[in-house]
Design goal:
Elements: H1 3-17, E1 19-32, E2 35-48, E3 52-56, H2 63-71, E4 78-83, E5 86-87, E6 95-98, H3 110-120, H4 125-138, H5 154-166, E7 172-176, H6 184-201, E8 204-209, H7 212-218, E9 221-225, E10 233-238, H8 251-266
Parallel strand pairs: 3-8, 3-9, 6-7, 7-8
Antiparallel strand pairs: 1-2, 1-4, 4-5, 9-10
Magnesium ion is lined by residues 63-64, 176.
């Protein structure tokens, strides 16, 4: 085999194994009144399989838009978004999306909210039950199985939302400020839970936050975005210590926090 053949095989293997997400010269504008707002202009970003990417940046800098593009809820005006080798122009089944406001149906109890996605996929009731029972236990929701969303705290609602997405076994999990309306302690508990799931499943995740500590606690890679449009990456930091014991209390954690804060302030948050 010639060298060129070998290297092209190598790069194909790399693509299959690692390159989960590719924004390739991706542009997107919104129509606003009589003008066009250019949010992304030939934007490029690659994300590997199993990475836990956190996007942090001031409000209005295009974070949610990036998730909508990845989820296939918005189409790029030019360029493309590729997930697992597929061009994304509509939602794909194995992408899970969790929003800030939980997205639960108030008229369904916890079990039915969690099981809805499985039901839509035509999974039989018996099989649904065993999946749901397992996840209820994992999320500490077993005793709330028959409660309705209105009877749950914010943290419990977000756990239901997470359970619903996880039952569908996504290979990509997108989260848009999922914990931002929770109190500090609940938030920390859910951060621990998210980290545990991410690490155990080696799930590729893209999480948007404007909380610096959350970014550092959850991101194996932290992408800092500038405050102005079109969206620009001002730093792409790797965080190899993520998930290590007592990470929150280490010097490393603190130092990275100072660095991210400095970058955000430099970008006029
Ligand atoms: P972030 O999530 O970082 O706060 P967004 O991605 O929501 O930012 O928004 C980026 C920019 O696009 C903002 O200036 C916002 O006002 C604008 N924008 C968002 N959604 C729309 C829309 N549907 N129509 C017009 N402009 C929008
Ligand atoms: Mg947003």
């Amino acid at each position: 085999m010639s060298n060129t053949e070998e290297s092209s095989l190598d790069s194909k293997k790399e693509l299959d194994d690692y390159n989960m997400i590719e924004f390739s010269d991706c542009s997107l504008y919104y129509h606003q009144e009589n003008t066009k707002l250019l949010v992304y202009d030939k934007f490029n970003l690659s994300i590997n399989k199993g990475e836990s990417v956190v996007l942090i940046g001031p409000s209005g800098c295009g974070k949610s838009t990036l998730l909508y593009l990845l989820a296939g809820l918005l189409k790029p005006s030019a360029g493309q978004v590729i997930v697992q080798g597929q061009k994304i122009d509509k939602p794909r089944q194995s992408t899970g999306f969790i929003l800030q406001d939980y997205g639960l149906f108030p008229w369904l109890n916890v079990v039915d909210n969690i099981g809805l996605g499985l039901k839509i996929r035509g999974i039989h009731k018996k099989d649904r039950e065993s999946v749901i029972n397992k996840i209820l236990e994992e999320m500490g929701l077993t005793s709330f199985a028959r409660h309705y969303p209105g009877q749950l705290s914010g943290g419990q609602r977000q756990r239901v939302a997470l359970a619903r997405v996880l039952t569908l076994k996504p290979d990509l999990l997108l989260m848009d400020e999922p914990l931002s309306s929770l109190d500090a302690l609940t938030r920390e508990r859910l951060q621990n839970l998210l980290l545990e799931i991410q690490q155990r499943e080696q799930l590729t995740t893209v999480l948007v936050t404007h909380d610096i500590e959350e970014a550092i606690f959850l991101g194996s890679r932290i992408i800092v975005l500038a405050g102005e449009l079109p969206t620009r990456i001002i730093a792409d930091l790797s965080n190899p210590m993520v998930g290590t014991e007592n990470f929150r209390t280490t010097d490393n954690f603190f130092k990275l926090g100072v660095k991210v804060r400095g970058l955000l302030e430099g970008g006029r948050i």
